[in-house]
Design brief:
single chain; mainly alpha; 0% strand; 7 helices
Length: 186
């Protein structure tokens, strides 16, 4: 693969990045080729030593999305970072997607339980209006206790969601580092 082919393939693989970011990356790889040519290597040897442009693009996109999710950890950025990490290798389909689905399920279940508990007094009152003869004060007081528990669950889920999000982002970064080149021991 020649320098022009390598850079063209890398540029097309990085089409999700802004023009300026792509130009910076392409300039870095052009410097790799310049240095290699000065050392007496051919363009094919340099391209082979750099690796696949598609794999390089996947690593750079994963790094980009992980940096973006650190600055703004919203649902869309997290999902983009998860897909970018999965794109690094087939093994990541299980290692990243499995925990992601599990954590989303836990967070969703916690929020749903909290909201459901908070809504119980309203449901008891609606039931009392529809079936006045079956109303019991115990149901009302028990639903108020559930509502209070629901408020505690919601407060706990607020902090748990933040903690789980930060922890999963750290896990994604660790995974991307591991896939890109392993952990280096000093």
């Amino acid at each position: 693969m020649t320098k022009e082919q390598f850079l063209k393939q890398l540029n097309s693989s990085l089409n999700r990045l802004s023009f300026d970011e792509r130009q910076d990356i392409l300039q870095d790889y052009e410097e790799h080729f310049s240095i290699g040519l000065e050392e007496g290597k051919t363009e094919e040897q340099i391209a082979a030593s750099l690796g696949s442009p598609n794999q390089i693009a996947k690593e750079l996109l994963a790094e980009y999305h992980l940096e973006k999710v650190e600055t703004s950890a919203n649902a869309a950025n997290i999902i983009r970072a998860v897909w970018a990490a999965i794109g690094l290798g087939f093994f990541n389909l299980v290692i990243v997607l499995g925990p992601f689905i599990g954590l989303v399920g836990v967070v969703f279940a916690g929020w749903a339980a909290g909201i459901a508990f908070i809504c119980t007094p309203l449901l008891v009152l609606i039931s009392a209006v529809i079936h006045l003869s079956s109303f019991k004060f115990f149901d009302l007081f028990f639903s108020l206790a559930l509502c209070g528990s629901g408020l505690f669950i919601i407060i706990g889920m607020f902090f748990a969601t933040k903690w789980i999000t930060k922890g999963f982002i750290r896990y994604l970064k660790f995974n991307a580092t591991l896939v890109k080149g392993g952990l280096k021991r000093d």
